[in-house]
Design a protein that fits this description.
The protein is built from 5 helices and 12 strands. It has 263 residues and is an alpha+beta fold. Helices cover 20% and strands 29% of the residues. The chain has a 6-stranded mixed beta barrel. It has a 4-stranded antiparallel sheet with strand order 10-11-9-12, covered by helices on one side. Strands 1-2 form a two-stranded antiparallel ribbon.
Length: 263
Amino acid sequence: MLNSNLSRAVILSLSLVLAACSSQSGRYKISDDVAPSNAPDVTKVEDAHPKFEPYSRGGNPKTYTVLGKSYQVMPSGKGFKQSGVASWYGAKFHGHLTSNGETYDMYSMSAAHKTLPLPSYVKVTNVDNNKSVVVRVNDRGPFHDNRIIDLSYAAAHKLDMLKTGTANVNIEVIYIENPESLALAQLQDTSLYYIQVVALSDKARIDQLAKQLATQYQVNTRIQQSGSLYKLQLGPLGRQQLADKLHQQLQQSGYPNSYRVTE
């Protein structure tokens, strides 16, 4: 947190796009960032609950510049992972706007990142003690080359890094797909799905099992020969959701090695 004070102070000259980090003189009642006095018990604060949220317009310029260095905001956080040093920020910024246009609450599970789209959900793991939290990224910073994320007071407390001010961490984005996009993709999906149940060399046994499962699950079957083995597959199914549901039922009914085949 010590060097975080300097990084936050210099951001006072940023444009309105970075509203949380730009300021007029005297905006902050506290000149130096500190831990809160008489803080509530944040051990009971729940991790952020990942859900789909559209990226905000105001908090995601394509590029922005701080201290002469330009940053490019990622169009998506899907699959993003990073390792480095985390810091935290507290009472000085409590109640002021974040770069996302929201109010910073140091008792919430939130964070700042230089390039992730806002908002994003991130799992943060302290590699020194293996403690993890899930935070919602809604701010920009920290603007130090050796820092990758700035955590709220509550998140830092749960990671046991308040005394040291920084910690070595791994971060991983928890990406939630747009439900409307998923639904559209499923409607446009023309794939056929099969569930391969077993592969046996006993053709009579495969034929018997095919009739049994066809009756039990009310689905067609097919048998494909590969060398001396006969593969029993259920299908075709025209929706992945239906195939996954059938696969789950089969695994729970004594066929743990069954798997989905896509054509």
